[in-house]
Sequence to fold (161 residues):
Amino acid sequence: MQALAESHRPGQRTVPCADAPSDLWSDWLLHRRHGGDPAYGEAVRRAVERYADRVLDGARLRPDMVLADVGAGEGLIAFRAIDRLGPSLRVILTDVSQPMLRHAEDTASRLSVRSQCRFLRCGAERLEGIEDASVDVVATRSVLAYVADKQAALAEFRRVL
Fold:
């Protein structure tokens, strides 16, 4: 299996920060996006999974790769990628929201894939904690729509690839 950057230790919590229970982004994504309607929530989930699958189809992942899921949110892309590739895939999930990272980390533990994951709180414009040329694929679903400095984000993607 390909290792992440030398500083990564599987299973290590890599994101120190305040234990805020929620923020605007996590509240919307986890609780408000579906408006409290379970049927609509299921429809949203299916639609978003189709987008994630399109991203992963384009990524052309292979065993032993490292995937950076930038703006990971719930971790949909990362966890679907692990589901496709199995235990040889390593993923780095980044997000600006600590509550979303905590949610994704809890999901990784529940799915028994925590050892394949690394969680970093950072924006797309500055992927702190990811070494130069240390990932094989950068994936993002919708985060660039929310990034003010898209050139900086794309430069960071290039740097870590």
About this structure: Residues 1-20 have pLDDT under 50 and may be disordered. The chain has five helices and four strands. The two ends are 18 Å apart (CA to CA). The domain at 24-160 is CATH 3.40.50.150 (Rossmann fold).
